[in-house]
Design a protein that fits this description.
Length: 1008
């Protein structure tokens, strides 16, 4: 043996021993969590290049044998796959990040679910993560700014009644059938505000006919599907989410003080050729407040809207768990919301119980039970509710006292906000809801599933309105006191059966759905009234005088029976086809026309799967979609085809008053549902490694057979019947982008969306081109504004004399209306309401947009939600828009920007000061008063911190997160100063409202 050979032998032996030592396996332990610190059970861990694998247990822990040269791979659905080198480590803490690509996302659709990548219809989805921890009191508020094609307007912050109106792709009808989308909660028809936002798992918005036609006669305005959270197998997890915050109004008008008011009142009198109302000495008393009882300075609206605490708090407990066969979620919630007005409060207690049981290998039971009990308290005044009280506080000038030193009250006519807050008048409402459904699914043979479902929805209410009598002072008394009590209930029974078939044959994938559904609805109510109670502390009906007692009551019912089906076909995961159909029969129509068929067809081409694009690295998914279908709207009343007798038609018989019934309106036996046909073209794309998602849609939505009244002679003596004669068309496009990425340890995302909807009336019926009273004009939007075109203000008397004659007694400083046309189609030197008015705006926004921005870094996270509407005009109530209207107030912007003889600016923002009333010609509807209501709102800002895992382990909890958030923080707009453009209120004298509120809150998420 040579020395050279010996050296080689020793070298290889040492190498072998080293390799053997390095290859020895040792137990490697660890724990897997998500970014928010929660443990993740069921994560698959493998040793690369071997068949060794394991999964994390219920606590996210794992143990696996590996050597220091091995590589561990961690995979879990919805999360980014992660690899780590074992090296000399024996314990790992792995944090999985959510997968940026959304190709595997599953979307809830009608009677089932589909992968988002395989959808051929237009569906927007919103996850629980996008709405959680926001201080929203009604679920409808949660949709603002998050989805394209959805117009959300929250018109009020009124506790218990602060939900938002939702429109999908415009306004489809101008009849009483309405424009609200169909809402289903876990498959049962209900209201969007019936579900606690804390319990929402996902929201799917079906916008085109291809996705919504499976719901037939109720889907014309789109469909919103709510899926609630469910239990997960594992140890019992207890969650507690809470926040506490306060509200304040988003916008508050700035009214002048009493001294300025008196000064301007004198100016207005002078402008009208009258004498001053106040002397200099009296104005000085207003200014120095030496006699506040007789010369007060009271900001009535501000005092009223800050009289309540505005405190708002929410508590939600959830319990989830289960084993291999049974899982459950039980949730209890409590909301307590004090209004910005005193004595105004809303309390709601709600529960959710979801239970899933794998009864047998091929038999699954799913149960959903939910409900709430709510109580609302509000103040009121002698002639109206709280919103009327707020409206008349706008009118009440600072020159009227609140409560005087002697205990009496100042007042204007019958109004004094402070007096009515101090009175015993009140409104109390109690509402209860139960919504329950259970479904049994049976896989009775390979590829086939048969399910049956029964659902029940029950609501009841009891309203109590007591109006006390009241003495303002020795000269003013209002009475008698009175009480009205009303109560009612409604219930809906749903029966449903589904048969599903799914099979994959080579490159062909086929899914078939056939179903039957039946719904029965019944409602009734009663109401009673009495007055002249012995005092203001007894407010039960029996305590009132029977001399003027009143009562009423009624009931109604309808039924709907449906057969429906769907076929989904996919070839080679590349060419997609879907066909839907629903055959509906409803009791709302006569027997001969009771049934209708609503079909749809859609197709998709995943062009990114073609060979010429499959290897393009920056394209992960590119799909073209096209669809067409028909939808219906059956919400036209219960018995429109029948000649109904109206009760209460009393008459004199033999000198005595007798009760009677009579037909007061003609019926139409040929009436049918309104039909909406929708064409949709779309593109879905996922690009740049899943970082960018793009959804583009163009739609054409035509509604025909809209119900409208026939014009008849008054000689008929009856209300005319309604016929199917109108039509409306909505066209537009939508864009939704979603970009997510990371820079080092910083993860960020932005999801902007934009929608454009061109709404126009294409037919009113009866051969008419316009119906001014209803705001309907062929070629223009539903709810259009009709009026004069303003040309600034008159400068002087010569301007009035030389300008075209106005339709009112014009004066310098008043609005100048343009002469647009005349009998011969050209301006004729005379402005009148026949030839010189036109459509000057629309109440419905053309544009809706929003953006959600999110950033997180080492436990800290920040999110910002923007929301906006544009392309619409509005005018506010008369007391809000006009100074000194019927003795009303003056706002600072009116005073600062008014026309005066010293500064006769024809472009002044406000007219000269005078007394105004409903007959004042200068305030006729015109472009001068119609304001651009477009706005961009910082809807929500949230800053949170997730406490680290090391601390959570020490405290033996799973998750602890603190956050601060602000809702409705700031609004960019050019609307009337001091008024929120989104707030709902009517024009004219009676314009009750409740302001939208901002909410600032501190919250906590805790999981055990």
């Amino acid at each position: 043996m040579t020395r050279k050979f010996l050296k080689k032998t020793i070298f290889y032996m040492i190498l072998f021993i080293g390799l053997f030592a390095n290859a020895q396996d040792v137990p490697v332990k660890g724990i897997v969590t998500s970014v928010d610190g929660q443990t993740v059970p069921g994560v698959n861990i493998t040793v690369d290049g071997t068949n060794k694998s394991t999964t994390t247990d219920f606590d996210g822990k794992f143990v696996i044998d590996a050597s220091k040269n091995d590589v561990l791979t961690f995979t879990f659905l919805g999360y980014i796959t992660q690899k780590v080198n074992v090296s000399n480590n024996t314990f790992f803490t792995i944090t999985l990040k959510e997968e940026l690509s959304q190709l595997q996302e599953v979307i809830v659709v009608g009677y089932g679910s589909q992968k988002k990548v395989n959808l051929t219809g237009s569906v927007s989805s919103i996850s629980a993560k996008e709405i959680e921890n926001r201080p929203i009191t009604q679920a409808s508020q949660a949709l603002s700014g998050l989805a394209s094609g959805v117009t959300v307007q929250q018109g009020s912050g009124r506790p218990g009644n602060d939900g938002a109106s939702i429109r999908l792709r415009g306004i489809g009808t101008f009849s009483g059938a309405g424009n609200d989308p169909l809402v289903l909660i876990d498959g049962l028809a209900s209201s969007l505000n019936d579900v606690d936002p804390n319990n929402i798992k996902s929201v799917s918005i079906l916008k085109d006919a291809a996705s919504a036609s499976i719901y037939g006669t109720r889907a014309a305005n789109g469909v919103i599907l709510i899926e609630t959270k469910r239990g997960k197998k594992g140890m019992l997890t207890v969650g507690y989410n809470t926040y506490v915050g306060f509200q304040k109004v988003t916008a508050l008008p700035d009214f002048v003080d009493s001294a300025t008011y008196a000064t301007l009142r004198n100016e207005a009198n002078s402008n009208m050729g009258g004498s001053p109302s106040y002397t200099a000495a009296e104005i000085e008393k207003f200014r120095n407040q030496s006699d506040p009882d007789n010369y007060p300075n009271v900001p009535h609206l501000k005092n009223l809207l800050t009289s309540g605490s505005g405190l708002q708090m929410s508590h939600n407990f959830s319990f989830t768990g289960g084993d291999e066969k049974n899982t459950f979620l039980f949730s209890l919630g409590y909301l307590d919301q004090d209004g910005v007005v005193a004595e105004n409060n809303y309390k709601r207690y709600n529960f959710q119980l979801n239970f899933d049981s794998q009864v047998k290998r091929n038999l699954k039971l799913t149960t959903n039970l939910s409900g709430y009990s709510a109580n609302t308290d509000e103040p009121r005044h002698y002639e109206g509710d709280m919103t009327n009280m707020i409206s008349f506080a706008v009118r009440q000038g600072p020159i009227f006292a609140a409560k005087k030193s002697d205990g009496t009250y100042g007042y204007q006519d019958n109004y004094s906000p402070q007096a009515w807050l101090d009175s015993e008048s009140f409104t109390n409402r109690k509402n209860k809801l139960f919504l329950g459904g259970t479904e049994l699914a049976w896989d009775f043979m390979k590829n086939f599933t048969l399910s049956g479902k029964v659902g029940y929805r029950y609501t009841n209410y009891r309203d109590k309105e007591f109006v006390s009598d009241f003495r303002f002072d020795a000269n003013k008394y209002l009475g008698p006191n009175s009480l009205r009590v009303s109560s009612g209930f409604d219930n809906t029974l749903t029966l449903q059966s589904l048969l599903k078939y799914a099979v994959n044959i080579n490159k062909n994938s086929i899914n078939v759905l056939a179903g039957f559904s039946q719904e029965e609805f019944y409602s009734e109510y009663v109401s009673g009234y009495r007055d002249n109670f012995p005092n203001n502390l007894l407010y039960e009906l029996n305590a009132g005088s029977p001399s003027n007692m009143q009562n009423s009551g009624s009931a109604g019912e309808w039924g709907l029976r449906s057969y429906f089906g769907r076929i989904n076909y996919s070839y080679n995961d590349r060419y997609l086809l879907e066909v839907n159909g629903r055959y509906d029969g409803t009791s709302r129509f006569p027997k001969d026309g009771r049934w209708g068929f609503f079909p749809s067809v859609s197709a998709g081409w995943k062009i990114s799967e073609e060979n010429f694009l499959k290897d393009v690295g920056w394209i992960q998914n590119l799909k073209f979609r096209a669809s067409w279908g028909q939808l219906g709207n059956q919400n036209i009343g219960n018995y429109p085809y029948q000649n109904v007798l109206s009760l209460g038609q009393n008459y004199t018989f033999g000198g005595n008053l007798a009760s009677g019934a009579a037909t007061t309106s003609l019926s139409n036996a040929n009436i049918t549902w309104e039909t909406t046909a929708v064409t949709d073209l779309g593109i879905d794309a996922t690009l740049f490694g899943g970082r960018l998602g793009v959804v583009l849609d163009y739609f054409d939505k035509k509604t025909s057979d809209i119900l409208t009244e026939i014009t008849v002679s008054k000689v008929l003596g009856l209300e005319p019947p309604t016929v199917n004669g109108g039509s409306v068309r909505n066209t537009g496009f939508e864009i939704l982008l979603n970009y997510q990425d990371k820079i080092g340890a910083v993860n960020f995302g932005i999801s902007p969306n934009f929608s454009y909807t061109n709404n126009r009336v294409t037919s009113i019926g009866n051969g008419l081109n316009q119906d001014i009273n209803r705001g309907l004009f062929v070629g223009h939007s539903v709810n259009s504004t009709y009026g004069y075109v303003a040309d600034g203000l008159f400068v002087d008397a010569n301007d009035v004399a030389t300008y075209p004659t106005q339709p009112y007694a014009a004066e310098p400083g008043f609005v100048r209306y343009k002469d647009i046309s005349g009998p011969n189609g050209v301006p004729d030197g005379k402005v009148d309401n026949t030839y010189d008015r036109k459509v000057i705006g629309s109440y419905f926004p053309k544009y809706a947009f929003g953006a959600n921005l999110q950033v997180d870094y080492k436990g800290f996270d920040v999110s910002v939600l923007l929301q906006g509407l544009a392309g619409f005009n509005r005018q506010i109530g008369s007391y809000q828009a006009f100074a000194f209207y019927n003795g009303g107030q003056v706002q600072q912007w009116q005073a600062d920007n008014r026309w005066t003889e010293e500064n006769p600016n024809p472009n002044a923002e406000y007219i000269k000061l005078t007394s105004l009333s409903g007959g004042s010609g200068t305030i006729l509807p015109s472009t001068f008063w119609d304001r651009n209501a477009s706005f961009l709102r910082i809807k929500n800002v949230q800053l949170g911190y997730n406490f680290p895992k090391s601390l959570l382990d020490a405290l033996k909890i799973q998750k602890l997160r603190l956050y601060v958030t602000g809702q409705n923080l700031f609004t960019f707009n050019s609307f009337y100063e001091g008024w929120d453009p989104e707030m709902s209120q009517s024009t004219g004298n009676s314009s009750p409202f409740y302001p939208i509120t901002s909410v600032y809150s501190l919250g906590l998420n805790l999981n055990f």
